[in-house]
Description:
The complex is a heterotrimer. The longest helix of chain A is centred in the middle third of the chain and has 33 residues, at 73-105. Chain A has a single domain (2-227), classed as Four Helix Bundle (Hemerythrin (Met), subunit A). Chain A is mainly alpha-helical. Chain A is globular. Chain A has seven helices and no strands. By secondary structure, chain B is of the alpha/beta class. Chain B has two domains: 1-69 and 137-188, 3-Layer(aba) Sandwich (Rossmann fold); 78-132, no CATH class. Chain B has five helices and eight strands. Chain B has helices at 43-51, 84-90, 99-105, 121-133, 151-166; strands spanning 3-14, 17-28, 32-36, 58-63, 70-72, 139-143, 170-174, 184-187. Chain B has a five-stranded parallel sheet with strand order 5-6-7-3-8, with helices on both faces. Chain B has a three-stranded antiparallel sheet with strand order 2-1-4, with helices on one face. Chain C is an all-alpha fold. Chain C has one domain. Chain C has nine helices and no strands. The mean pLDDT of chain C is 89.
Amino acid sequence: MFQVNRAYPYIFYLSLITYLLSIFWGLFLTPEDFVQGNSYRIIYLHVPASFISQSLYLAMAIASAVYLIWKVKLSVYLVRSIAPIGAVTTFIALISGSIWGIPTWGTWWVWDARIVSTLILFIMYLGLISLHDSFNNNEKADKFLSILVLVGSVNIPIIKMSVEWWSTLHQPASITLSEKPAIDLVMLYPLFGSIIGFTGLITCLVILSSKLQIIKREKNKSWVKDYV
Amino acid sequence: MDALVKAQNLSYKINDKKLFQGISFELLKGKALHIQGENGSGKTTLLRMVCGLTKPTKGDLITQTDKEVCFIGHKNAIKQYLNVEDNLVLMNLSNHKDLQKYLSVFDLDKSLDINIANLSFGQQKKIALLRLFLNSSDLLILDEPSVGLDTNSQEILVNFLKKELANGKGIIYSSHIFLDFDSDRLGI
Amino acid sequence: MEIIKFEFLKLLKKSRGWLGPILVFILIMVAYPLTVEVSDVELSQSFFSILWIAALLVVMLATEDIFLEDFSDGTLEQYAILQKNLSLIVGSKIFVYWLVIGVPISMLGAIFCVGTTSESAFGYQILPVLLVSTYIFMNVFSFGNALSLTKGSVLGTLVTLPLLLPLLIILGKVVVAINFDLNYSGFLFLLLGILSIIIMIIPMIISYIIRAHLE
Lengths: 228, 188, 215
């Protein structure tokens, strides 16, 4: 924990600078998109957010497995502190996608493969939070939380698979990232930069929130009193 | 002689709050142990721990029994919407050779076709206690077994428990109502 | 076998437990044509989505207190003390619920299907899909209700909904497959595969959850 504390400012400022630089690069130094005009520039928020929202779930799944197998309490604190952040990033991904949808597809919502899977992910995050908060007994709540995360993670590839079959039949015209013409390198570099920067910032948020979680849960221990 | 239950330094915490700690005891065959304590001191938790339902936060608990434990808890484990006979089927007691005897002792033999919901609290408790009277366990764990029983039935219960002790069974129980038979005491 | 017999006895004597959901299913299927302008074509177009949603809701309703009753009256703690194999009990409980509620619903669904689409072939094809999918629903909702055992069904639903959405998407595809005579058996085998994994794993997870609740 104290090691993390020491590393924390470096991570924070490095990723903040990276993100700001890439956004600046992306917003002002790259040319307009041939098809979409300026509206595509929301990509520097949308893509990092949706990338993070899925990676956070993966991180939660790993931490849950660690908790259930080795009973490491810290890992379930991590799960609990990631859940709201995951919900927020998923929400950002959904909203920014909707905003992007208006100029490109002419509508803010399409029942498309990726959107639906993101929506499911969002509901899953909400379910996890409400499940954990509804139990008074922390140990029970921890167990159930990590079980649900793991069961839900089995679901994620299924979501992907089934949604893709469904969409190929239902909506072949809708634009998904994979079908779009390859992004030009000029746009790709700032995109990578923004993903890395955003990931770093979210990591900082996770660190802060798990610190809070640890202090909240261990508040009766003497070391917490010393620390605070 | 082997101990049926051997507990060393048991402690239990809920959300980092201690319920009890440092509990040690040993139960030999043919002995009874009366767990005493105020409301909320963790008697039920300790009994459930001996049953294997709850795990101690710290300490060792070894039970050595050949058969399953017989546990009578606060919950009767009988179905309100079924009649007595169906409940006996669910409890796996309907073919027991001593069933008729205890039904008539408790005056239940005429209410076999009555729904449990129409029986009084004490009568429901008696049906739950049939589990105890027809048990085949070495170790009996009773959480307030005499709640709701009239004096006559309490006497039957005490006599039965005395007989079980003489047969070499072990009993761990908690009761706020005084049950008149030899037992060691453990305060928590 | 004895466990299954016991569960039958319990469920059948509790008529609101099984008759209620079946009646709700019939109600939805009868009420739905009344709410649209009746022309046969439109009815059969949206019939299947109503069918899936009805099956989903009814199974949700049916499994609402699948473990709650046994938990609160102490039956589960007796089971946990006496018999070590809780997951077998859980599995047979779900099986009995499916047999008493899921199977009649599936048959009714197939009958309604023939009645609405007036093609008996659809009925034969939809019946096995309904049988399998109601069994999957049963398992998943039982999982959700085990997690939220003492916390009400809202939480259970919120928790299980994301797990079921992909399944609903597959079911939508099955209907397309039936309509256009495409690869129907492929989807049936896919559902059977999902089911066989689920009935192996879910009872084990649920029994773990129940033990945690009993603690």
